Structure formats: structure tokens, C-alpha cells
Amino acid sequence: MTELSPRKREILRRVVEEYVATGQPVGSRTLVERAGVGASPSTVRGELAELEALGLLMHPHTSAGRVPTERGYRFYAEELVDTIEGKPGPFPVDLSAMRNELEVALQQTTEALSQATRLLALVTAPSLHAAAIRHVEVLQLQPHVVLVVVITSSGGVTKRMIELGASADPGLVEWARAYLNETTEGLRLGGAPLRRCFEDPGLDQRERDILAALRPAFDDALDESGAQLYVGGAAGLLGEARGAELDACQHLLELLERRAVVLELLSDALDPRRPVVRVGPEVDGAELSDVSYVGATYGLSHRSLGGVGLLGPLRMDYEKAIQVVRAAAFELSRLVEEVYEDA
Asked: Structure pTM?
């Protein structure tokens, strides 16, 4: 499609934008008189016919106007992404004061995305695999029972009661607490450096034994590392839909029940510096050919930690969706840079 002339590109863009705004097929007179295309109606009609022949536009029923096809939406959206430059615009929620309230920040981001676009908003929380250990507490509740608390940089708290084989020396329990805080702070769950803390050959047998007993608490934290998904805007999406778009909205709500697919969609951004747009079958096979997705990842300079996305019908405001998703990802990245500064 790179062979499209500048005028064809402009006409396709105007058709998409007019159709998104009105929901009505777009004719040559509308493009000339209202959309500002600088050509005669007859010239525009010829260009519309050629765009239809290329599969970018189609005639709905017997209407004289055209509407975009999935292929037309995809071409338009990819053109938008290619023109993106510079820092994203402002995001409607100030996340800077939520350094210690990551869950609140993610929830408010989801709500702001759905309110700004009237689309289905999706945000994933950072996996605990990416979180750094902030603090470890080991409390001796009974001579042979200890409570281990693992706190991560994402705000996650995991507690585990551990029964020891015999009464433990309180001094040894205190040593384990101090040792774990000194050696594990800043290490990521599931990483080799954390494993080496429990396998240090310089430790004596008693020290290795109690660390081995406490280690399941860290395994618990890792087991709970499934990505948390925040969803917003389902009610608003249904309220805005009309006609055939109701089917698309129902498909979207059904998609939410397939959590693994949604999480894969949110994590599948090929370039963390640029948003991803998927139109029609690209989302999840032909059964979702009437929906589109706009998403971006957020995180640190050297790795992504989560995803931000919008799902909606094909007739969505792609430009606004891309702008808002970019702004949300940018602000969340700034927030987690502080939260995960030692991760």
C-alpha cells in the first residue's frame, strides 16, 4: 500500500475520520464541502472508486457513500503510528504522588483511559518476577513456629507460617532475619542472585538449615506472581454502541473471560517505544474480526513491566486512542522507575 498517492492517503484519512465521527457513509460531496479535500467532487469520486478497488473502502448496502474496511482502518492506524514523534501529551490523572500506591495508580489509570475514550481499558500490573525484594521479616511466634513476611517493591506482601522441626534458637532466628534483609534486598524474585543467597558455601550447617526452612516463603511470593489485570469501561462501551457494533462489544466482553488471551495481547508489543495497533482478525482470529486493539508497554529503560491497552469496535477514534495510551504508558513508566529503581 505504500504506492498510494498523497491525495489517496488524504481521502482515506478523511473518510475514516468522518465515519468515526458520524457513523454515516461518506460521499464525495461531504469530503469536498465539509472535510476540506482540495479537489472536485468528480475527482474525489474517482479516487474513492480506486480506494474501493484496493479493498480499503466499501459500499454499505446501496449507499452512495463509502465506509472503511478492516484493511482501510489498518492502513489508517499504521499511518498514524508512523507519524508519532516526541513526548506524549498530558494524561488526565497525576500519578506522581502514588509512588507507594501502585495498585491505586493502576486502577485510576484504567478508569481514566475508559472515561477518555469510552472504550474497554486494560492495564496489567508488573509481575512479581520483575519486583525487587524490599524487606524480609522473620518473627518467632512459638519455639518451633516462625512467620516469614516478604515485601516487594511493587507493594506485594506475602506471609507464610513455617513450622520448624524442633525449637529454634531465637538468636539463630534473628540472624536469619538480618542475613536475609542484608543479602536479598534489591534482588528479584526467581533470579539466580536470590538463589545464591540460600546456597552460600560460607554458611555453617545450622545457618543453611534454617534458611532452607524459610525458603518456601520466597517460593510462595513467586507463585503469586501471575499478572494482575485491571479492566474498566465495560458499561460505557455498551452504552455507546449502536447497531452492528453491539455484536463487537459482546465479543469484547466474551474475550475478557479468556484471561490468558487478554494478557498475551497486552504483553505483545514488539517495540516498547511505540504503540501497537491490531485491527480485526489480528486481534484473536476471525471470530473477532469486528474489533480493534491499541496498546503500549510501560516499564524501565531496559525492560517492560506491564501493558496498557484499549479494545473497541472497528469504528473507534484511533488517533485519540493512540494518544491516550501513549500518555498513560509514559506516566506509568515514570512512576515505576521510582518504585523499581533498585530492581
From this structure: 0.70
